[in-house]
Amino acid sequence: MRMTVLLFVLLVMDSGTDTRAADGDFARDIRPLLSDACYNCHGPDAKAREGDIRLDDRKAAQDSKVLTSGEMLRRLTSNDPDVRMPPPDSTRMLRPADRAKLVQWLKAGAAWPEDDRHWAFVPPQRPTIPEVQQRKWLRNGIDHFVLSRLERAGRSPSPEADRVALLRRVTFDLTGLPPTLGELDVFLADSSPNAYENAVDRLLNLPAYGEHMALDWMEASRYADTDGYQNDRLRYMWVWRDWLIRSLNDNKSFDRFVIEQMAGDLLPDRNFHTQVATGFNRNHRINSEGGSIPDEWIVEYVADRVETMGTMFLGLTMTCSRCHDHKYDPIEQKDFYRLFAFFNNIAEAGLGPNNGNSPPFIKVPKSWPDLSAGETKFVVPDPPRIKIQQVSVPRPQSGGTDTVMVLHELQKPRDTYLLQRGQYDRPEKSELLRPATPPVLGAWDENWPRNRLGLARWLTSPTHPLTARVTINRIWQHYFGMGLVKTSENFGVQGELPSHPALLDWLATEFIRSGWNVKAMHRLIVTSATYRQSSVAPPVTPESDVENRLLGRGPRKRLSPYEIRDASLLTAGLLVGRMGGPSVKPYMPPGIWRSISNARYKQDKGDKLYRRSLYTYWRRTVPPPSMMIFNAAARETCIVRTDQTTTPLQALTLMNNVAFVEAARMLAERMMKQEGSLSPRSRVAWGFRLVTSREPNAGELDLLLSDLSAYQQEFRRQSKKARALLAIGEMECDPTLNTIDLAAYALVANTLLNLDESITQN
Amino acid sequence: MDTLNEFRSRQTRRAFLGRSTLGLGAIALSSLAHADERPRNAIGGLTGLPHFAPKAKRVIYLFQSGGPAQMDLFDYKPHLAERFGEEVPKSVYPDERKTTMTSGQKSFPVAPSTMKFARHGQSGIWLSEPQRHLAEMIDDVCVIKSMHTEAINHDPAATLFQTGSVIAGRPSMGSWVGYGLGSENANLPAFVALTSNGTAKAGQPLYDRLWGAGFLPGRFQGVKFRGQGDPILDLYNPAGVTREQRRRMLDSLSRLNNQQSDRFNDPAIATRIAQYELAFRMQMSVPELIDVQNESKSVLNMYGPQAGQVGTYAYNCLLARRLAERGVRFIQLYHRGWDAHGNTPKQISAQCRDTDQPTAALLRDLKQRGMLDDTLVVWGGEFGRTIYCQGKLTNKIYGRDHHPNCFSYWMAGGGVRGGMTYGETDDYSVNVTENPVHVHDLQATIMHQLGIDHERLTYRYQGRDYRLSDVHGEVVKDILI
To answer: Are A487 and B462 in contact (CB < 8 Å)?
Structure first.
C-alpha cells in the first residue's frame, strides 16, 4: 500500500518540460517540506517565530547562515532530542525520505533561486504547446499537454468512450440530467463528423445548463433560505439565485459576473440587476440570537466575506490570517484586515431581525424577473433602523418575502483596525488600516477606486496570478471530479502542486484571452480528446494511477445529490421543469425540523414536489437529509470541494425514501404504458435504457425478468401489499393498470434506480 | 433457473465474505481515490491508534442544552442568602460580556439559589434537592465546578463544545473519535446522536452540525436516531415490500453491479455493494436494538416511567446503554430545555424531573453490568448562568442569563475518579478561583481516556492540520485514576 502511494507520488510529481525549469526544484521539492515541517515556528508568523530564524524568506534564511553553516544540517541529522528538528515533542513530522531530501539539498549547497515566489503567485504565462507522438489522438490544445505528460510516463490515452456513454456523460455534466431516449436516438443516428460538437452546442444552450452550473456556485456562495444560527430564521434570497441562473445562461463574461457580485452597487452603470447580484456577499449566515453583541457579529460577517473571496477567487485560506500572520503563505495579519476594510462599510446590523431579510435590502417588483424599463433602476435601500427589544436587544427592521438582501455602502465607513486574535473587542487602535490588497498577489492600479469596485477590478485583472487559475481549476474539477490542483480550495504553499502546471496556465490564459468566456471554456474541455476517453480502468496494480491524475482515461464519478434526485424524477416522468422562483418544500422525513428546533416543516403539494433539486428549501441547521447523505455542502461556509464517501445510509435512501419509491412506481407506470412493446422483456429493457442510457444485455434482462415474475407471484398472493406499495407518494396511480403487475414493475424499477450505473457517470 | 439460483447464492456469499469489518464508518474503498485517506486497521481505525492504552472504550455524553444553572445544581453558595437583592459588585462582574438580553438592565441584583442543598454519599458532595437520584450515585461522580468558555450565545457555545470551535465547519467530537478509532460493531455506526425535548419547555434548537463530520469524510458524521418515523432515516422497507423481496433485489443489484465492477475496475463499486449489504443488516440489527420492551421490569423501572416512550430522555438513556453494549463508540445525547431566563427554580426542577432519574439509572445500570469502568459518562451544557437576576427578583422567583465564566460539569466512569469535586469558584459563582477547566481541556481529557493524544489526532484541511482541541487543551490529570 505504502509502495503504491510512493510510486504514485513519483509518478505525478515527475518533472520534465511541464514544470518551471530548474528553479522548479526548490519550489516543488524543498519548500513544501520546509513549509510543512518548519514554518510553524520558523515561518511568516512573526509572533510564533522561534530563535529568530525564518525559513520562508530567502534573504532572512541566507543571512542567518543556518543553511550553509552546517547548523541546519546538524539539527536535521542529530539524534539528541534537544537538538533535533523538528523537535520530537512537537506535532510537526518529517518523514525519513523527506528528511533525506532536505539533507541532500543542504549538502548540495542549499540552492535557493532568487525568484523564489510560490508558483501560484507568479501570473500565468501562456506556455508553448508541447510536441507529441500520437498526433492523431489530438483534438484541441488541452490534449497536447495531457498526451505529452502521458507519453513521458510511457503511457497511452484510453480509447474514446462509446457514444452512449459519451452523450450521457456530457449531458449530465452540462445539464445535471441524463439524456432522454429521444436525444440518445438522434445522437446515435447522427453520423456527421460534428455530431458530438453539435450535441454539446445544443446542451450549452439549454436553460438546464444555467440551473446545473448554478449549483457549484450556490454551494461555494453558502446560499440558503435561512440565517444559519440558533433558531435559524427565514430569509429570502431566491431572487439572487434567479439572477445567477440567468447570468450563467446568458453566458455573462466571468469578469463582469464577478464584478457585479462584488460591487454591482458601485458600478457606473449600476442598475437593479447588478444590485441583486451583490446578494452574493449577503449569503453568509446572520445571527438573530437574542443577547448577541452586535459588534461581535458584524466582524463575523465581514470576515466571512473576506474568507469566501479568498477561497473562491484566490484559492487561499485567508481564515488563518484573521488571528495571526499566515503560518505558510506570505499573508500577514494586517493584509487580512486591509482586505477586511473593503467590506467593512456595509450599512448592516449586527443582529438579524428574527425572521426576514436583514438590511440593507431592496424591494423586488412583482413583475420579477421580467422587469419593465422603469423597474430596472438602481434603488437606494433604507438604512438599518434599530429598535430595542427584550430590555436591550437591538434589532433592525425586517424585509419581507418581496425583498432581497444587497450590499450598500455606509455614508461614513467604519474604522478598520487589526483585531488581536481576531476578536472584535481587541482592536489594535494604534494603526488605522486602509483598504488594500496583499502585495504578494499582484499590483494595484491607482486608477481603480479604493473600494469594492476596485477590489473586483483587481480580482479580474488579466495579470492577476490567481483568479483565472483558481476558476478554471474548479471548472476542471466539475468534469473530472478533481482539479488539476487537487486542493481546489488551496493554491497556497501548503496546497498540492498542479498535476499539469502548463495545462493549468494554458487554460487560465486561454480563459482570459477568450474574454472570460465561460461557455467557451466548458466547450473546450468537453470537446477535448481527454474528456472523451473511456473511463474503463485497467485492473488495479501497484503502478495504477488510481486517482487518474495523469488523465489517461475519462472521468468516472458518482452523481451529485442534486443530479441523483433530478435524474430519478426525470426518468419517472415527474420532473417539473419550471425555472426560478421561491424555494420549494418537497418530501421530508416526519418531524424533521420540529424534533430539534422550534419550527415546523410544511411540505408543499403538487408540482412543487417535483421541481429540480436546486430549488429545494435549504434550512442551514437542518439541511435536507437526502442531500447531505450524498455529500452536499452544508452551506454554512464557503465550500468548493466535497468528498464522495459511500455509506449504507445512501443505500437506505435510494431503496426506501418516499421520493425514490414514488419515482420507481411512476417509472413502472411508464414501462407498463410503453406502447408497442408488449412483452415484459421489452418493457424492462426500455426502462433499463431510460435509467442507464444503454441497452441491457441478455443476462441482465433474464435476471430482472425472473425477479419480475417472482414479485408478481408474491404480490398475487398478497394483493394488499401491492396496494400499500403503490400508495407511497402523492402522485396517484393510473387506476387502469393492474395493481399486481404495477407493484412488481415498481420493484424492478426500484432495482434500476439503485444500480451503481444509475448514479454514476461513466 | 437453477443456474440463476446458484449464481445468486454465490453472489450473496461473495458479498458477505467481505463483510466482516465493513462497519458503517469503517470502509470506503472509493476513497482510495482520495489520498487524504490514511492507512486503517481491521476495524477501520487509523493505524497507530489508540496512541496509548485507553481507560474508556466508549463515551456517553449527556449534553444538557440551554445552559444549566450551576448555583442551583452543584455550586453551593450558602452565604449568598445574606446578599439577596444586593448589587453584584462590578469588580466581580464587569459590564463587558453581558448578553444584550440583560446588559441594558438598570440593576444586577444577587439572586441566591432557592434550592435546598445537602451532602451526599461517602464523599459528602453537595447537591441540590431535585437531584436525589444522582445523589445515590454521587460517589462514582467527579463534579467539575470550574468549567469556563468564551461564548455567551447558545449557537457558538454549543458548537464550541461539540467541535472545538465557534466557527461552523469543523468535525464534531464523535466524528473525530470514529475517524481515529473506527467501529467495534460492523452493523452499527460508531457515532450515534439522540435528542429529546424538555417536557416543560422544549428549549433551544439544536443543529445538525453538532454531530456533523465537518471537513472529515462524510461517513464519520453521527447517525441521528430519530424519535419519530423510522429510527434511522429510511431504515424500513417501503410499505408492502417484504424482507425476502429486498433480499432478492439486493442479490440482483449485487450481481449487476459486479458486472460493472469487472468492467470498470473501480473499487468504488465494490464499496457500494458492501454498503448495501450493511444497510440490509442494519434493517435487522436496529429494530432489535431499539426494542426496549425486552428489558426486565426492574431495569425499566429504574429508568422511570418514560423509559418505554420513544424520544424521551429516559428512553434515550436506556438506548445509550444498549448502544454501548453493542460497541458503539460515541453516544451523544442532547436534552433541551435548560435555558432558564424566566422562572429559573421552576424550570430547573422540571428539567430534573425529566433527567435526574434516568441519568442516575444509566450510571447504576452500567455499574451493575460492569461497564462503568470502561464507559466514560459526561454531563453538562454549553455554559452556565448568571448569579445576578434577569428580570424581576422575588424571594421565590428569579431568572438567570447566560454565563460563560464558570459552570459545572460532571464525569463518571471510564477512568475518572468518583466522589470528588474539582475546581473552585468565587463567593458569587461568577469566576473560577482554582483549577480552571476550559472546553478544550475537557475535550483533551475525553480523548485521553479513549487512548487518544488530542494533539496527535489531526486532519489536514486547507493546508493546515486541524484537531478537535484547536491549538489548546490540557488533560485534567488530577481527576483521573
So the answer is: yes
